[in-house]
Task: structure prediction
Amino acid sequence: MNIIDDAARAIKAVWGDLTTPKEPTVYGGGGGGGGGFEMSPEELKTVIGLWEDELKKVVDDGERIRRISEDLMPPGQDEASSSYVNSGIDSVISLQKQNDSMKAYIEGYIAKLEIARTKTMATDQANTLRTT
Result:
């Protein structure tokens, strides 16, 4: 084992396989005009579920980042070893901040989607009552 292999495994553990891009699924009705789009409550529920899945991944990544930071120790007692580990710690701290930011963004976005879903269901219910 060498440090390059260890670093590659750590990156893959946190970010997964970055060599295989995935096509995103687009939800919602088309139609354009005004820069908006519409989704049914069921579509919103699906999108919320996808974001909740992403949130779980980000939380898991945060746990892996924490474990990586706990394992960073200099291989020796010399200045070069300490400097090397300090640089690694700085990088891991930046990674943790970015992970925390992603987590907060996703949590906020899920909350907005939940509000939109609740409003859409209320509107649908009101429209149903008007037509009956």
Notes: The CA atoms of residues 41 and 104 lie 24 Å apart. The radius of gyration is 22 Å.
